């Protein structure tokens, strides 16, 4: 009886369980049918809309102007094509298709992707910068066809340099952030940051802050809607100290007369740089959206070195322009007075060697010695004060050290002293070496920028200024001046008689019987000094196989300030292979003339193309073919005098070997 009752209860329970399971499965089936059939479209759309993506909105860099408000650098809109690995189902296929439709080499695309593999997968990898409209259209079409769902096209700001290569070494260029910059500057991968010039030094001011956009995308990567957008903040506007008209005048004049080289013009009281050029130059637009390998290679292999900023990186023998330092040192140290006379019979004997002058000037005082660039006078005075006094005053005037200009990679000028030679070569200084240094030869090697600082110091009477390129900045609240960097060198007051004598001599170089007459401008009281830096000795020319005649020509210097009694500008022109300082003087004339014309509201001067050289007549050809070398050439050829422009690279022993039985130097 009990067993039957137990069976009945068990059967009932099993029946209830079976019914419950059946009902449950029925309800489950109904649910599946409800979701999968009745509301299939609704839930499919919800599933497709559950992807979110955060896109970086690049900040436009700040606009750059000259001191008068002339626009120098701006931005333009361009397109970047990027891969989003986060949503890539087949990265290898994406690379192949993208390379094909954009006509970018597949190897190039793979290299770019490999370079960024360590970065977060949600961060877009920019494959094509500044894409063409054809590339954008091709990628967009494939995205609509769901062929490239993991590729995006973004509109981004790109740097534009309207005047192309003008002031290129000063302004600089931008490029994709390096690994080091990603860590130090807090920028994201693919960002374009300053790599050279002002763009680099003031990158934090110019860079701005990127924005972001958070969007919903479907499973195919197509944007559905925007959830949130934080707009980017443009970088600060920056006003440079550069004067556009003077900058253009300098570059136009160098090109007009056919010279590479450099020009720097300063305001002697403030140190503001009015002009800074280096020729040949480059077009920074080539870097704005990523430079291609061919262009980069051609710039780096060009024997004219267009990427070198000659104004602050080129070092050359100063030649006779160094006589300004010697004159100042001798007067300030009380070794001579402005009326001190030296007799010049065409040279002088020092320490058993004869050092030649290119003229027999007779009795010379300081002013006329500067005007005529008399070597004998400066041999004598330099020997009186010694090399250490020359170094002391070269440093005070700003010639011996870096200028401190706000540009990267400035080279330091080399002015020798007894301590310098002992430290560098572990050798003592020989008195005969002082004679060569006194006329700007020997182990002397200076930058154009340091020469400009020297002239500014003479112009302002003893304050060594720090050259500066940025005048003001604007974060949107109005222009604010950028404070000048205080000079680390205490000012000194040059004696009135020193200033008067040196300025008189420099005035006579341009307005008297000196070699700077090409810089003379009526009524402007231009003062200056020419100089020649020998590139190679005449004996060395015989060994210079494969060098063109142009490559062997001497360099020309002209340093200047104007007007004489209250100088408003001071500067330098360096004419590479210009042969004589007078070559640089004609370039300086156009710059100075432009300054005064603009200041006085007059029409700017127009350059006249130089007349082509007259063809040689038969008589000239015969004379040239039969002429014997001059005594100067003979002396050079016999002695192999080495006064290289890059004197700082040579050992002092090499400079010492130049002091043969009859040393010759040029006063040009």
Number of helices: 25
Helical fraction equals 25-40%
The parts where pLDDT drops under 50 for at least 5 residues are 619-668
Sheet bearing the most strands, described?
Answer: 7 strands, mixed
Shape summary = elongated
Strand content: 15-25%
CATH architecture heading of the largest domain? 3-Layer(aba) Sandwich
Taking the alpha carbons of the first and last residues, their distance comes to: 139 Å
The total domain count is 2
CATH H-level superfamily title of the largest domain: DD-peptidase/beta-lactamase superfamily
Rg is 36 Å
CATH class value of the largest domain: Alpha Beta
Query: How would you classify the helix and strand content by structural class?
Result: alpha+beta
Number of strands: 22
**CATH topology grouping of the largest domain:** Beta-lactamase
- Overall average residue pLDDT: 84
Task: Please sum up the structure shown.
The chain is α+β, with helices and mostly antiparallel strands.
What is the secondary structure topology, with strand pairs?
Layout (H helix, E strand, L loop, with lengths): L1 H37 L1 H9 L2 E7 L6 E2 L5 E13 L7 H12 L3 H10 L9 E4 L4 H12 L6 E10 L7 H4 L1 E4 L2 H6 L7 E5 H5 L1 H5 L3 E7 L5 E8 L6 E4 L3 H13 L3 E7 L6 E7 L13 H9 L8 H4 L9 H10 L9 E3 L2 E4 L2 E4 L5 E3 L1 H7 L2 H23 L20 H8 L5 H7 L10 H13 L9 E5 L4 E3 L14 H16 L15 E7 L4 H6 L5 H4 L2 E8 L6 E8 L4 H19 L18 H9 L4 H9 L12 H6 L4 E3 L4
Parallel strand pairs: 2-10, 15-22
Antiparallel strand pairs: 1-8, 2-3, 3-4, 3-5, 6-7, 8-9, 10-17, 11-12, 11-21, 13-16, 14-15, 17-18, 19-20, 20-21
């Amino acid at each position: 009886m009990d067993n039957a009752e137990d069976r009945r209860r068990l059967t009932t329970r099993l029946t209830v369980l079976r019914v419950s399971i059946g009902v449950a499965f029925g309800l489950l089936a109904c649910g599946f049918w409800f979701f999968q059939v009745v509301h299939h479209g609704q839930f499919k759309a919800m599933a497709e809309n559950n992807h979110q993506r955060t896109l970086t909105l690049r900040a436009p860099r700040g606009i750059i102007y000259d001191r008068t408000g002339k626009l120098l650098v701006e931005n333009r809109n361009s397109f970047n094509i990027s891969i989003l690995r986060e949503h890539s189902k087949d990265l290898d296929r994406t690379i192949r298709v993208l390379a094909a439709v954009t006509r970018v080499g597949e190897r190039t695309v793979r290299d770019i992707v490999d370079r960024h593999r360590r970065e977060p997968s949600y961060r877009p990898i920019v494959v094509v910068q500044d894409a063409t409209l054809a590339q954008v259209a091709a990628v967009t079409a494939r995205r609509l066809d769901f062929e490239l769902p993991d590729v995006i096209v973004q509109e981004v700001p790109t740097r534009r340099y309207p005047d192309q290569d003008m002031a290129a070494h000063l302004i600089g260029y931008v490029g994709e952030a390096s690994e080091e910059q990603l860590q130090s500057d807090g920028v994201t991968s693919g960002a374009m940051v300053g790599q050279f010039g002002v763009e680099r030094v003031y990158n934090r001011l110019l860079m701005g802050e990127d924005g972001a956009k958070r969007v919903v995308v479907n499973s195919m990567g197509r944007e559905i809607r925007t959830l949130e957008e934080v707009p980017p903040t443009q970088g600060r506007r920056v006003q440079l100290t550069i004067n556009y008209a003077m900058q253009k005048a300098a570059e136009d004049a160098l090109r007009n007369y056919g010279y590479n080289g450099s020009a720097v013009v300063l305001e002697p009281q403030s140190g503001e740089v009015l002009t800074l050029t280096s020729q040949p130059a480059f077009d920074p637009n080539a870097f704005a959206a990523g430079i291609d390998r061919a262009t980069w290679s051609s710039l780096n292999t060009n024997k004219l070195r267009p990427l070198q900023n000659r104004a602050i990186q080129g070092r050359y023998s100063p030649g006779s322009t160094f006589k300004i330092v010697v004159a100042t040192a001798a007067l300030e140290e009380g070794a001579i007075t402005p009326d001190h006379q030296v007799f010049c019979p065409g040279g002088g004997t020092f320490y058993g060697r004869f050092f030649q002058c290119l003229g027999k000037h007779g009795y010379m005082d300081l002013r006329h010695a500067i005007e005529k660039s008399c070597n004998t006078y400066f041999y004598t005075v330099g020997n009186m004060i010694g090399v250490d006094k020359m170094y002391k005053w070269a440093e005070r005037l700003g010639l011996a050290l870096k200028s401190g200009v706000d540009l990267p990679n400035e080279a330091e000028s080399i002015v020798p002293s007894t301590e310098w030679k002992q430290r560098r070569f572990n050798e003592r200084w020989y008195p005969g070496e002082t004679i060569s240094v006194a006329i700007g030869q020997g182990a002397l090697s200076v930058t154009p920028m340091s020469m400009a600082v020297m002239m500014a110091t003479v112009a302002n009477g003893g304050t060594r200024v720090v050259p500066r390129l940025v005048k003001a900045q604007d974060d949107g609240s109005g222009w604010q001046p950028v404070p000048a960097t205080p000079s680390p060198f205490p000012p000194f007051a040059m004696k009135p008689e020193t200033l008067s004598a040196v300025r008189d001599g420099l005035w006579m170089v341009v307005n008297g019987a000196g070699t700077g007459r090409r810089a003379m401008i009526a009524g402007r009281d231009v003062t200056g000094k020419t100089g020649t830096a020998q590139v190679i000795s005449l004996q060395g020319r015989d060994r210079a196989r494969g060098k063109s005649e142009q490559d062997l020509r001497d360099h020309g210097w002209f340093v200047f300030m104007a007007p004489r009694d209250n100088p408003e500008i001071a500067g330098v022109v360096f004419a590479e292979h210009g042969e004589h300082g007078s070559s640089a003087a004609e370039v300086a004339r156009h710059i100075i003339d432009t300054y005064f014309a603009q200041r006085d509201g007059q029409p700017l001067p127009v350059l006249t193309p130089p007349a082509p050289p007259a063809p040689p007549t038969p008589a000239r050809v015969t004379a040239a073919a039969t002429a014997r070398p001059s005594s100067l050439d003979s002396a050079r050829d016999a002695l192999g005098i080495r006064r290289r422009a890059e004197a700082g690279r040579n050992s002092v022993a090499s400079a010492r070997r130049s002091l043969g039985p009859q040393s010759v130097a040029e006063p040009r």
